[in-house]
Protein: RNA-binding protein KhpA
Organism: Falsarthrobacter nasiphocae
Amino acid sequence: MLVEALDHLVKGVVDSPERVSVTHKENRRGGLYEVRVHPEDLGRVIGRQGRTASALRTVANALNGSGVRVDIVDTDRRR
């Protein structure tokens, strides 16, 4: 559910919604949601002084009910 919610929110912000992908990974520190966007949309998703990214993390934590990590990376960065 959280993957779909983040996907929907991020696609509403970017110019290239077809290049958005959200994946969930489990590691030692808990759940990690990785949001990948087109390099030109990275600034839009991060926002001024990180406000948009912070808002996305707030929504993710509210929907999940506990602390989760949300990383935002561009599609050109290696996986």
The chain has a mean pLDDT of 88. The two ends are 23 Å apart (CA to CA). Residues 36 and 78 are 11 Å apart (CA to CA). The first strand starts at residue 21 and ends at 27.
